[in-house]
Inverse folding.
């Protein structure tokens, strides 16, 4: 009997150590809530767990000494998530990569990260379609008062349409795109279905945008684009050059019936100037996927204005795009932990 018990204990121990070994065999990654806010990427954890053991940030903070030297990659989703600062970098001696979900890396100090011998990657291209779709959706929703219409249907006091429910035409209107990168180009192509005239402003001229499939007209001077556009859409990366690129001066140049759409980063716009422009009816409306901060405090003046749509930065939030984004992050992290070149490395 004693013999049997001892064999059982031995077996259990062997089994336990095998399980522990399997868990520890996988390299560890550090992740916040698997996507802030709200941990929406949690449902994609199985895709990551095929290759890595996920250490949630909250667990890491409680037991740093257990995990610090095991973590080889940090997964970051956007600016609201984990702060990769000097303190964190110093506490992870075996870190090889900071893997960002999404294309914008303005929230990461790449020179600082690189100075620790750590590479940075993002997920370019895979986000382009979803982000272009949200830009076009915001333009249509604002122009045709989709949100107001829904609110009216749900909460109306009377069945009379208010005068303010009248929208503005998209078909045949002029769209000014500030930032003609891959996403800007996709937006321009999509709007051909609406027979829109496209103006674009970009650091460099993009001849492919001017070809017949898109037919965009280059405005070397942003002033010309602002003065002529019915819809102005900002699609630039956030950088020191684009910080508060659109402010009081730019809003003053826009048409009173124009709509301002931002799908890039909140800090590209002087938000106080935007509130002022909307209140003074210098522009018709604004539709924003990005703000500063995110999410906006509920008592922010932008949310009190009737002619504003604010989304909580959901440009890439589709099941399909998020899945591909996570797979791409895993590919980059695997390259990093096996000593390979990161396919989507972002250089400083
Ligand atoms: O940068 C991006 O790709 C999106 O804004 C998600 O953060």
């Amino acid at each position: 009997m004693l013999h049997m018990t001892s064999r059982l204990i031995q077996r259990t121990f062997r089994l336990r150590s095998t399980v522990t070994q399997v868990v520890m065999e996988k390299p560890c990654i550090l992740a916040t809530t698997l996507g802030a806010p709200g941990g929406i990427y949690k449902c994609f954890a199985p895709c990551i767990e095929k290759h890595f053991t996920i250490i949630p940030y909250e667990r890491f903070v409680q037991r740093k000494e257990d995990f610090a030297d095991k973590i080889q990659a940090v997964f970051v989703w956007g600016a609201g998530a984990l702060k990769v600062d000097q303190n964190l970098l110093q506490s992870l001696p075996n870190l090889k990569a900071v893997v960002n979900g999404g294309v914008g890396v303005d929230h990461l100090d790449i020179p600082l990260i690189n100075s620790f011998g750590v590479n940075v990657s993002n997920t370019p291209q895979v986000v382009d379609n979803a982000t272009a779709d949200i830009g076009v959706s915001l333009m249509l929703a604002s122009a045709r008062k989709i949100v107001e219409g829904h609110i009216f249907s749900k909460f109306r006091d009377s069945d009379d349409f208010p005068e303010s429910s009248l929208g503005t035409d998209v078909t045949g209107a002029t769209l000014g795109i500030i930032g003609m990168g891959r996403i800007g180009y996709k937006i321009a192509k999509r709007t051909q279905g609406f027979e829109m005239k496209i103006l674009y402003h970009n650091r460099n001229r993009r001849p492919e945008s001017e070809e017949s499939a898109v037919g965009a007209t280059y405005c070397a001077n942003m002033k010309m684009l602002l003065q002529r556009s019915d819809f102005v859409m900002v699609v630039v990366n956030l950088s020191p050059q684009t910080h508060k690129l659109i402010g009081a001066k730019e809003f003053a140049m826009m048409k009173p019936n124009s709509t301002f759409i931002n799908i890039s980063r909140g800090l590209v716009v002087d938000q106080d100037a935007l509130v002022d422009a909307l209140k003074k009816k210098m522009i018709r409306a604004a539709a924003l996927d990005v703000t500063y901060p995110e999410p906006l405090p509920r008592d922010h003046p932008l949310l009190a204005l009737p002619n504003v749509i604010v989304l909580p930065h959901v440009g890439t939030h589709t099941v399909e795009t998020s899945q591909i984004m996570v797979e791409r992050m895993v590919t980059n992290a695997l390259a990093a932990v096996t000593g390979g070149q990161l396919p989507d490395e972002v250089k400083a």
Remarks:
- Residues 1-23 have pLDDT under 50 and may be disordered.
- The two ends are 67 Å apart (CA to CA).
- The longest strand covers residues 71-77.
- The chain has two domains: 2-125+319-337, 128-310.
